[in-house]
Write a structure and sequence with these properties.
Helix content: 25-40%
Radius of gyration: 16 Å
Strand order of the largest sheet: 1-2-3-4-5-7-6
Strand content: 25-35%
Order of helices and strands: EHHEEHEHEHEE
Oligomer: single chain
Shape: globular
């Protein structure tokens, strides 16, 4: 296994492999995302144009099998920034955790915790940052494509010190695997204060 820890413009070299991995992993529940590489290139451009972003990549020989990203909220898209700004969070003091993705064969080996730790380390390197946040997709429990053996990551996130914030959500549009046209999905924000609470 080969590990690469990248910042900002260094991520650009791996844009297509990272986009292809996102498409593969996010095709599964709960995302059900039918992606395309052109969209992925536009999405990932935000990360390699930022001066405060990171990507941590895992390769098995030449294949990218896992990745995680983070970015200062001020550099994120408006639909991610706006709900937090409306709650009076300073985007210069918030790190947004993007994807944390692994191919199925590499799950259950502790990489999820490694990904979380690497993003928190990155957040802690930026002195003014007080908060880390990410979004989870909200899907109805009775959705026909929900696997019977699906195990949500809620308990893991709680163990890492994150909490869902009541009413703090955003909407993102994408095309589901079983749909003919894109639809809007609600996403829930989770937050963690990475500093001493007295500093917040």
């Amino acid at each position: 296994m080969t590990i690469l820890s990248l910042k900002g413009e260094q991520i650009a070299e791996f844009c297509d492999p990272l986009g292809e991995l996102r498409i593969k992993v996010f095709a599964d529940w709960p995302y059900l995302y039918r992606g395309n590489l052109n969209y992925e290139r536009t999405y990932l451009k935000t990360y390699f144009e930022s001066h405060h972003s990171m990507a941590y990549l895992i390769f098995d020989q030449e294949q990218l099998v896992g990745a995680t990203t983070a970015i200062l909220l001020t550099d994120e898209k408006e639909n991610i920034k706006k709900p937090l700004i409306e709650r009076e969070f300073d985007p210069m003091k918030v790190i947004y955790f993007g994807e944390s993705i692994l191919l199925p064969a590499y799950r259950g080996q502790g990489w999820g915790k490694v990904f979380m730790d690497k993003r928190l380390e990155f957040a802690a390197e930026i002195p003014q940052v007080l908060w880390a946040t990410f979004c989870s997709v909200l899907r109805p429990d009775d959705h026909p494509l929900k696997p019977k053996d699906y195990r949500p990551l809620t308990q893991f996130w709680l163990q890492q010190g994150f909490q869902p914030v009541d009413g703090l959500t955003t909407d993102i549009e994408w095309l589901d695997c079983d749909q003919a046209s894109p639809t809007v999905k609600p996403l829930q924000f989770w937050l963690k204060n990475i500093r001493d609470k007295k500093e917040s």
